[in-house]
Amino acid sequence: VLNPADTVAILPERAAAGSRPLGSGVPLARPVAGGHKLARVAIPAGTEVVKFGQIIGHATADIQPGEHVHVHNCAFSDHDRDYRIGAD
C-alpha cells in the first residue's frame, strides 16, 4: 500500500488458498500469485478501484475485503486521470 486512499493492497509473494494475507477479510478461494491485488475494504460493484492513489478501474461485481481483485471482478473504465504522479 503506497497511498492511504488505496482500496487494494499488492501481495509481495504467493498466498495459499484459505489464507488471509491482510490479516482480515474473507479467506482466499484460490492461491494468488505475488504481485496481484487484494481488496483492503469492501468495494461495491461500479465503485472505483484505487491502486497507488490512482483509479485503475471499476469493480464489475461486489468485492469483499481480502478478496482477490483481478479481471473477474475489475475492469478498465473511463475516468479522470491525474498524470502528476510524484509531483508532491
Can you describe this structure?
The structure is a single chain. This protein is mainly beta. The protein contains no helices and 6 strands. The protein has strands at residues 8-10, 37-39, 48-51, 54-59, 68-69, 74-75. The strands form 2 sheets. The protein has a 3-stranded antiparallel sheet with strand order 1-2-5, with no helix packed on it. The chain is globular and about 40 Å long. It starts with 7 loop residues before the first strand and ends in a 13-residue tail after the last strand. 19% of the residues are buried. The model has no long low-confidence stretch (mean pLDDT 91).
Topology overview:
Layout: E1 8-10, E2 37-39, E3 48-51, E4 54-59, E5 68-69, E6 74-75
Antiparallel strand pairs: 1-2, 2-5, 3-4, 4-6
Structure summary, number of beta strands: 6
Question: Which segments are poorly predicted (pLDDT under 50) over 5 or more consecutive residues?
Answer: none
Shape: globular
The number of helical segments is: 0
Mean pLDDT: 91
Q: What strand order characterises the main sheet?
A: 1-2-5
Helix and strand composition category:
mainly beta
Task: Work out the radius of gyration.
Answer: 13 Å
What is the first-to-last residue Cα distance? 17 Å
Order of helices and strands, N to C? EEEEEE
Task: Determine the fraction of residues in helical runs and give it as a percent range.
Answer: under 10%
Largest sheet: 3 strands, antiparallel
Beta-strand residue percentage = 15-25%
